[in-house]
Amino acid sequence: MTTSSVEAAVTVEASQAEVEAFVGQVMGDTSAWIVTTMAMIGDQLGLWRALADSRPTTSAELAEQTDTAERYVREWLSSMAAHGYLTFDPATERFTLPPAHVPVLGIESPTFFGGFHHALYGLSSMLKPVVEAFQHGGGVHLSSYPDDWWRGFERFSSGWFHYLLPQVWLPAMPEVNAALSRGADVADIGCGRGKALIRLAEEYPAGRYIGFDVHEESITAARASAEAAGVADRVRFECRDVSAGIPGDYDVITTFDVIHDATDPQGILREVRAALRPEGRYVCLDVNASHRLQDNTGPLGAYFYGVSVLFCLTTSLAQNGVGLGTCGFNEHTARQMCLEAGFGTVRRVDIANPFNILYDITA
């Protein structure tokens, strides 16, 4: 089709108003990418932390406080103010991070996005190899991802384990909570840098904990974190692909945002089932998505599918995996796969979380 025939088709099939409306949407989405990129830079340079006291500041004052170049800081502040992340007083030329924005951008809290932005900062460097995977097939291996991705995701998920795991999630699973309180043998599959197990070991010191992950660098970091937290006497970490078998047997096995990423998710579920004691429980946190695309529309669904392309899907395909993708272990699929793996009951825990579903699963 020639350029002129394409233009004619557009004229026939879409009104100018429809075209302009979509231009507005794309402009807004493009602006959001720029704003998010600026937010990522703010996290990297400590600008948000410096603004967290909500005191009005000038660009020169913020630059001096953060040891950055004033002209860049002034432009960054202007971008953030233009989008409403900051307020600006033209009389004093001072910028303020409103108090309601502080727990989102300035300090760690249940609503903190700084770790998320840190992870995206690392993920943005992976565009070229992902594009090459589009062209040639295969995927991008875990070892290719930069430390910023791993450290950012650790900071992001730390909010789950610090603010939600002991206070909200475990009380909603009384049998699991009771087992941990008595002193359980616990395994965390896909443990990453170990934050979940370290938090459990702090909250339930009578337990015995081991974490497994295929990413050697994360295991090294997890061991160091356990030492720093003073729980290395009861928390161990091992680099292992558990789809080939989980050593030992356990009262509680956990996976936090892991199964949808896995090379062999069904194999992992079978091994988890085999490693659980008769009265054991499997605690599974995964993505809150539907098995139907039409139910996943909107900003959150678009984010899920995009991160899938950039990490979840491609890292599975890189290892000749099934490539479930971010939305692939939805509730419908999770129930089917757990049944096939031989589990008893699968209960969705009521946690009212737009990002994740928590399951309490019996052996």
TrEMBL record:
Annotated Methyltransferase domain ranges read 182-293
Q: Which CDD domains match?
A: AdoMet_MTases (cd02440)
Q: Which InterPro entries match?
A: Methyltranfer_dom, SAM-binding_MTase, SAM-dependent_MTases_sf, WH_DNA-bd_sf, WHD_Rv2258c
Occurrences of domain S-adenosylmethionine-dependent methyltransferase Rv2258c-like winged HTH (ranges): 35-105
Question: Which GO BP terms sit in this record?
Answer: methylation
Which keywords describe this protein according to UniProt? Methyltransferase, Transferase
Do the record's keywords include Nucleotidyltransferase?
Answer: no
**Molecular function in Gene Ontology:** methyltransferase activity
Q: Which Gene3D superfamilies match?
A: Vaccinia Virus protein VP39 (3.40.50.150)
Q: Does the keyword Metal-binding apply?
A: no
Instruction: Identify this protein by name.
Output: Methyltransferase domain-containing protein
Q: Output the lineage of the source organism.
A: Bacteria, Bacillati, Actinomycetota, Actinomycetes, Jiangellales
